[in-house]
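User: Here's a chain of 160 residues. Predict its fold as tokens.
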Amino acid sequence: MRAVVRELQPADLPRLLELIDGLADYEKLARPDAAARERLAADATANPPRFSTLLAEVDGQVVGYAIYFFTYSTFRARPTLYLEDVFVLPERRGQGAGVALLRACARQAVAHGCARMEWQVLAWNTPSIDFYQRLGARHQADWLPFRLDDEALLSVGQPE
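Assistant: Prediction complete.
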């Protein structure tokens, strides 16, 4: 029972959306609505795609995914691989899919000359935090995440 990681194919979109719903449920967030699901599918398969998607299979079943894209570090003067999502179905954890996905993302970061790979994890998600720390990831306690969304984003984005 070895996890295999491969790139998303258009035929995988329904399964990817199911897994995204699984992540939303796990993180106690609202699932993407119908319009968001359409945008996700279109963006995942655009040419070029707006983000990259890797799928993890165990015994021929897709059990997890990772979505990533590249940002840029001005201080390192190199790109950064930003891992937006990494998720393995809870009942399929411990079978190597999570490690395989993170290793595949790290290989992509190295192949693209990245100085680092970054992601965020919810503060209550101690199983994931422990997993990442076992792999050598460090918590960035000196950086605080900020976000503009919804009305605040529209307000700040108004022309002067």
